Amino acid sequence: MLDKIQSLIxxxxxxxxxxxxxxxxxxxxVDKWGQRACVExxxxxxxxxxxxxxxxxxxxxxxxxxxxxxxxKTVRKxxxxxxxxxxxxxxxxxxFLTLPGKIPVEIVDAQRMLSLYNNPALNGAIPSGLTVSGGxxxxxxxxxxxxxxxxxxxxxxxxxxLAHELLHVWQNDHHIKLPNxxxxxFCNLGTYLFYTYLDNELSQKHAxxxxxxxxxxxxxxxxxxxxxxxxxxxRNLEKTVEILVKQNRIL
Length: 251
Ligand SMILES: [Zn+2]
Ligand SMILES: [Zn+2]
Ligand SMILES: [Zn+2]
Prior knowledge:
This protein is mainly alpha-helical. It is 45% helix and 11% strand.
């Protein structure tokens, strides 16, 4: 009580740990949302927003966590997928890219995602999305595409991952062969456009993280593609790929 009165007088709330609620003294942990916690807690970040999770949050058997902020906004039903999908398509169209028809999207659990990837190099890390394209697409035959998405993603993050995967679909359908950093960088440009278009706190945070990502492929490659898109690509996605392909043609 005295604590509360003193804090009211000073006009500041006492700093408390988000996990156990005890007042924080000395060193403490801070997440990118400014949440603070005692150093001794073994915290797992929410797999969607990165907030430090609490013991009462949803802890999935695959090791991922969904915080209380994200749990009510995860994509589960067909109509949720539809809502996000139509927004992603809208952003592509605003930036002059048309997908080859309606692409089927299926939500899968971690076990199924890992079996679809079948890649020991993942080392247990669970990918958020996967694109599978089949058929040659030559001599008049159409390619078939399918996107697999991991379950329990917040709709904003789901949209970011879906935009990435759908740009793999587009590249596959057009037989685009770019160096890996540019291929993934282009897909990440779709994610970035989705986040900046939504412009809410979560999407804004993720857009900032993308701009600062030190990864040579997903960060550096993305920024390289973004620079071309904003300059000679005239904010036109299809034109941006044309330029990248020309620049990377082996003579
Ligand atoms: Zn604590
Ligand atoms: Zn969260
Ligand atoms: Zn990718």
